[in-house]
Amino acid sequence: MHGLPRRAPKPEEEEALAAKAKDLRALQSQLLSNHHSKVYTKEALDVSAKLLEKNPECYTAWNYRKLAVQHNLLAVQSDSDSDSGAIKAILDLELKVVVDALKQNYKSYGAWHHRKWVLSKGHCSLDYELKLLKKFQTADSRNFHAWNYRRFVAALLNRSEKEELDYTTEMIENNFSNYSAWHNRSVLLSSLLKKEAPGFFPKEKVLNEEYGIVQQAIFTDPDDQSGWFHYRWLLDQTVKMDAPLLASSWPAHGSNVILSRNRHLYDCSASLFDSFHSDSGTFPLVLYFNQAVKGVNSSTVAIESLFCTEDLDWKPLLQISSQFSQVWVTHIRFPEANSQYEEACAVEVSVGLSQGIVSSSGFDYSHLTRLAFKVCLSPVDTEPSKTQGRDKILWRDENFSLYQTGSEEPHKSLSIDDLIIHNVDKPTTSNWRAETIANEIAIFRELLSETSCKIGKLTLARLLTAYDVIQSQCANKMVNSEEVLELYADLLKLDPTHCQYYKDEHSLVFLQQLTSSKESLLKHCFSHKTLASSSIGNYTCLCLNKLSLTRMGSIEKLLWVQMLDLSHNELHSIEGLEAMQLLSCLNLSNNKLGSFTALAPLRMLKSLQVLDISYNEIGSDTIDKTRYLFSSPLCHTEEISWNKDENVNGCINLTNYWDAFLIFKSMSLTQLAILGNTIAGENFKSFLVKVVPTLEWLDGDKLH
Amino acid sequence: MEFPVATKTQHEQWTVENLVFRKYNLFEDLPHHAQTLMLELRRDEHIEYLMRGLRGLPASFSVLDANSRPWMCYWILHSLALLGELVDDELENNTIDFLSRCQDPNGGYGGGPGQMPHLATTYAAVNSLITLGGHKALSSINRRELYTFLRRMKQPSGGFRMHDAGEIDVRACYTAISVASVLNILDHELVDNVGSYILSCQTYEGGISGEPGSEAHGGYTFCGLATMILINEVNCLDLPRLIDWLVFRQGKECGFQGRTNKLVDGCYSFWQGGAFALLQRIPSVSEEQIVLPDVGHCTLDTSHTSTTSRISEVGNSSEGTSSQVDDTGGFRQEGLKVPFPVNYNDIGYDFINRSVEMKPLFHAIALQRYILLCTQAENGGLIDKPGKSRDFYHTCYCLSGLSICQHICSDADSPVLPRAVSGPYSNLLEPIHPLFNVVLDQYHEAREFFTTHRAPFNSEVLH
């Protein structure tokens, strides 16, 4: 829709224009008459050439010429005396017409397209095309028609991507702000690296050179955008692992899981990371990958155990699109209670047994991973008693005492390092990554010592985080977190308009730090006093309250958590929480959740029974404003099936509370606190009682 | 590699910044009443410029537009409609007659009488006729033939050609799908695979390019996003990346640039600003999955017929889809396919009736300032940036962008608050339908017309 006149005529020019227009109209009507009566003589062709020279937008004339070429080629070919020279003459004429037209308007879609059409007939010398392109690209280096045409010609010429890359180098040397050249560069480099083309292997060497080039651009002028955008792409190429890997699982490798059907279990031997209680008689097996994958199913993931022999149904939990998900879950039935398997039953899970697990960027999961763990049924297991009422769980401080790792800790307990899977990368690659990032860190520290620029600080923070992530694959240490946290705090002051972004990043780094060692994690683990007798499961609560968190992270290390206190934070989203399949008690009170759709991750938590969402901002918005800003938007394309005959429409006002209905309908909560939200009121409460029949406590009141 | 100290691009950027900031500084130093005056939308001058253009349109006109006269019609008529200005009967009749002469007997509109039909001019002609409104204008569109033209342009790859033997790109997809949707002739055959073509044009930056491999671009991003919404596949795009790209396009000049490190240009007020307006109304996760009677926000009485029919449709198909749903969690995993047999023609209508609860993700007041202070030509018409000349294209898209900004916080039928309007409240323009870029009232008239006057073949094609 571009490429049309940018200049309105000045009054004094109007007369001249009118004359020109008259001339043009004459040409145009001649052309249309020739077109409709299929006249393809030399004179007729001249008319269209003249018209196109003056007005390249006349696409009907371009098509007329295409028909004429076809017609004349046919005539030449049927003439046995003719040589290839005649064919070439016809096509060369077309190329000339295009060049003349482009001189008038180098953004003409029709002209560029006609040229492609002519060239695809063959017979033309292509070398001239590159010269021509050079001319056009010098005149306007950002003309995307020319760039598109360049890619077309390069393909026809079988020109190597290396040569095209050199061309972008040349363009960038002339003008390092030319983002079109940077763009083409990243497209070409990606392809060359993927192919491991000669001179582009190993990847490490190539990327190092690229860092050199982009640094020069950035250091020449830190205020120019183009270099920074390219730098971000480059950093991504450095940090990202091509092949998907398993990051963690529950049960973790080497764990000894104690399963129980009975809520009233008091088992002091239950350890922090591996006990689980369920009414349903199944326990979840969660696989947490380092990136989204598809193809997790019973043929790609094999499970060997004496009690689990059926094919398992795998479900995605953190979907980034319709097929890909970072987290997958299946449910395994408990071993028979009174069978010969009373002792621990070994389970071995092999991930990536056959090909089929593929990342969203198309890389195969090629790293066979074996997880072995044992499960045993709690010896005091009895049938659950459904009729019995449950006690209210209070989140008061006095109910919690710091988790003790004393003598009761079972001797075989897991360490925090066992919670994540340490993938042995090719040492050369990971060393290179670490070295490259370290080198970049040094360079940006230097830049920041001279000027204080926001994007420089942000880049340094990203580099330091990336460094820690790479290092954590060998040793679970976050050496740079303090500095990163300071940088984000700094940026918050420097650039308050983007405070939400900085706060989110701050939260993620803070949680990485918190979960990096058992000592720091245990400071946040508390035992719930009264729960010991009325156990709803593992009575250890992970308390991440009052930490100014704006989003949740490091969930791959928290899959074991069954009771979680996130109250008194600034959470506006709980994206990612769906991976915590063991959660049975969750406190989200006093946060900034604005809508029920922001609670959508809860729908995946089938064990959740106690939920506190009091004192949020629910009802002030109907949709989750944050969802697009995170990595997994719209992921939960889950459908709720409900029986239309169910008497919901009659007695419940679905129209007003459809968003709440979607969340609560799929959960079986026994306890819920909702007070202190915009939506909370008597109408809404009576709606909840109908939609959640399992509910026993609502806002602290006993219901039945 | 050796770099010069400052590039040509940077010099150009600095020049523009100087021009723009000179305006802003001048503005800041003025007393309040003078500021209000400066922020005023010079309606009379714009209307005069546009009217003069419209009258001159069928007769002698400037040179280069001989092939895009439906575009000229659309840019002028739409600009006038945004300003709330009516066209007199004679001009209206002349325009309808002229556009009818551009209509090809085998469907679609060409750039002028006798020219071959082209998708872009078809879009412009259809939008012009909708903007004019009335039985004569709307019934002059031969929908049956237009449909066959669209099918002829459809490529096996999913994309569309601009015209016979023409280029394939995202523009072609948008103009084809937009026209089909607004004329109530969009069906599965037209929609098939369009989504995967658009997806192949989303770049690593997050924006959408004109064709695969090319660079992300504001115009194409709007076209791609609007198309994906109209075919009910918007969730297949990587929306976080798209937003990420989009938010970086508004610069300190307050206006939008079209691509990374390009100069600000008034026309992107619509292409990029419009993309934000689209994002605001993308159905939330939940609404996608379960169609409930009127979620309580739309108060339009007329919506009942369509929503009821949609519910019964979903209800009828529930047996068919039950295999995809299970009780324990019920994930849908059939890839890009649509879960229910959606009536594509209702998407645009339902879209505009959805309430806006999300605040805009760009600075709408700043953009209005850019448009009002930097793109109003002295003698009427709007421009790209200070120093450029006026034209109808920029007039149309600067005004469309201005309307987007003013209405970005309000629902289709609720009043616009004075604080949402930069300058005097009389600056307020008519609201538009952001998927089609036609004035909302005119859209509703057309919707009513094309749903009650069914093209004879529709009953077969649509169901």
From TrEMBL, chain A:
It catalyses: geranylgeranyl diphosphate + L-cysteinyl-[protein] = S-geranylgeranyl-L-cysteinyl-[protein] + diphosphate. The keyword Transferase applies. It is an enzyme of class 2 (transferase). Keywords: Prenyltransferase, Repeat, Transferase. It comes from the Eukaryota. PROSITE patterns: LRR, PFTA. Its EC number is 2.5.1.60. Transmembrane segments: none annotated. GO terms for molecular function: Rab geranylgeranyltransferase activity. The keyword Transmembrane helix does not apply. One of its GO terms (cellular component) is Rab-protein geranylgeranyltransferase complex. One of its GO terms (biological process) is prenylation. Catalyzes the transfer of a geranyl-geranyl moiety from geranyl-geranyl pyrophosphate to cysteines occuring in specific C-terminal amino acid sequences. Belongs to the protein prenyltransferase subunit alpha family. This is Geranylgeranyl transferase type-2 subunit alpha. The lineage of its organism: Eukaryota, Viridiplantae, Streptophyta, Embryophyta, Tracheophyta.
